[in-house]
Amino acid sequence: MTFERIKPQKGSEIVMTHMKEQIQAGSYLPGSKLPTVDQLAVSFEVGRSTIREAMSALKAMGWVDIRHGGGTFVSKTLPSGDGLDNGGDLFYQTESFQEVLEVRKFIEAGCASLAAERRTEEDLQLLAQAIQEMEAAIDNESLSEQADIRFHLSIAKASHNSLFLSMMESLTDRLQESMKESRRLWFFAERASVKLLIQEHKDIYEAIKDQDAKLAEERVMQHILKVDRVVQKLGAKA
Length: 238
Known about the structure:
mainly alpha; two-stranded antiparallel ribbon; 10 helices; 2 strands; 68% helix
């Protein structure tokens, strides 16, 4: 008899699952404040980093809202399904969203490659400014998303290919929707913070600044592929 290998759960995954179940059961009502990281660490008998990782995953799935310096709160509007466990609210209109990702991969990778070859000092300033705006809006998801989109559009502009820029601008509405979902999926895939997401943008910027076309293309492609892998995984479960 053969047995399927069972992957052991990380401590943060156990905490995440338990907290989500508590929210679903009504132990923590929408809009209510959760115990502090220190309090949860004591309750679960784990380190604070484990709690933070679990909270980041819950935020990515739409269950909680983390306010810098203000604590963690249950989202006022909860996901209607089980989130990433079965696709849920985080994953909807699979084919449409995946099609946008497929287009983004090739357009943005091409833009990054050309941008590295053709960027001007003005282009670099626009890219750097978008990153600065992302850092300044680290606790404001809406402003951070807008800065994120400006960064990607600035790469297209730096390619100095009018057709690439027109294609990206024509996708602005879809890009905004895609970017929002991409960021949430990226956070879940990485189990990471906004700071790491910003660092990926900085890495792309550095490759463009150094005029390394191949590296710029690879970094943009990998940036989007992380989201694509989660989409593929969820699509298989749907």
